[in-house]
What we know:
By secondary structure, this protein is mainly β. Helix content is 1%, strand content 55%. It is built from 1 helix and 43 strands. The strands form 10 sheets. Strands 35, 38, 39, 41, 42 and 43 form a 6-stranded mixed beta sheet that branches. It has a 5-stranded antiparallel beta sheet with strand order 5-4-3-6-7, with no helix packed on it. Strands 17-24-23-20-21 form a 5-stranded mixed beta sheet, with no helix packed on it. β3 (58-67) and β4 form a beta hairpin. The longest helix has 6 residues, at 314-319.
Amino acid sequence: MRTRHLRLALPxxxxxxxxxxxxAASADPGQLPVIDEIATAPGDPGVLAVRASSDSDVTAVHAxxxxxxxxxxxxxxxxxxxxxxxxxxxxxxxGYYDTxxxxxxxxxxxxxxxxxxxxxxxxxxxxxxxxLTTRLDVLHQHLVAAGEVRYLDPRDGLDxxxxxxxxxxxxxxxxxxxxxxxADGRYSASWTPxxxxxxxxxxxxxxxxxxxWKGSNASVDGPVDVPVVATQGRIVLDAVPATVRYPAKLTxxxxxxxxxxxxxxxxxxxxxxxxxAGRTDSAVARTSATGRFSFGLVPVQDGGYGVRIPSDxxxxxxxxxxxxxAKVLVVDRTALSWSKPAIxxxxxxxxxxxxxxxxxxTPPKGTKVWVQQARDGRHWTTLGYVPTDxxxxxxxxxxxxxxxxSFRLVYNGTSVLQGSTSRTVxxxxxxxxxxxxxxxxxxxxxxxxxxxGTVQHKVGGTWKSxxxxxxxxxxxxxxxxxxxxxxGWVRTDSRGRFDAGVKATKTGYYTAVWFxxxxxxxxxxxxxxxxxxxx
Length: 535
């Protein structure tokens, strides 16, 4: 900070010395003593200092003090080094006193002198040191008036710091900024400009807490015109990666610079904020002593990411609002949800869910989501894919040749989207079959076609009976037709066997089907058997 140090004569700040006043003398001044000066010790109104002369030695000097017409003190003075002074310190109420001095010389001649309010018996403040910023620029952004105050109390003669109540007032263009003088006597009042290119009219003063102090508003420094100087500024970003994989952190670092003395220099203490595409929040920081800054943020959307000097900052007063940014492509993280995965009785895997992106953007319609199966839980086989719709959702049932094992959904990703894998689910349905299926191969019309077989399911690797009283439906498809028609039903015995007769009407094909009524077994369907019907 460029400072302006105070160099003032003592009386300009502390009215401790009484101005000498010529006093009335007799018509024959050669015969009477002359009161040459009524004053106090320098900066100490508790000790009188009177000078008197005559045609013979002055042998006695007496001082009478009064206030508001009432006597306050009567003091015999003693000669010390040519000055008449009191041996005991004056102890009075703080205020202004009238003084009457009586001098007697060796010839016995007596004369008096004095005046009204000639003694200021008040606390005497003095500024020990004071500094003021004399130029505001990008390196000195705040105007500061600082210093130290002490005072002398005439009652005890001690020179010390104020106990409290003294205010240092900084006035800038008619606006005041106050700072309390601390217990150590120090003060610091500051002001920060909001515009540059002009000068600020500055004055510094001390405000005393009451009338026991000398000078209720003592000027310390001023008025002074302090220029506020603007300059050029810029933000220089370090290299920014062109691509970031969400949720990786992006580092925005660099330097704030300003033109100082014709050269670009690092600017310490500059306020900067980060910004980014789709972000409503921002981080705030100040540059280091070398003008450096560094932000870490997680980019969500593609776009510009950078750093700027905010318009409401002090730094912007001197260099204006500046910014620097770089375009960043965010490789979105994807997520696959799988809703209610299950295998139905037809050995179909229900595949329904959604593919989403971390940015909230919908993936392109037709994005392929692959379905994988691991029959041993380790080695994955791709069964096929399902396409997403325009909202990223998908729903389909796919036939499984092997309806048991581990299943998952996989998205392989692209250059702009990260791949993802759904949760793994364990699904299983027991295989079933109709074994030993036999029908009458040739029969006369109107006679019965006999259908026999056994329904089994595979449990723990072993084929077992489906159980008794299971309904087996019987279907017929006429030769040349594609449509099956139910022609009857039969129930199994305890060994899962069935045996039924169906009236023959046409030549065609017969099949037997057991429809699963639980969530563990698949449907069981026999092969088609050809039966020729003759007349």
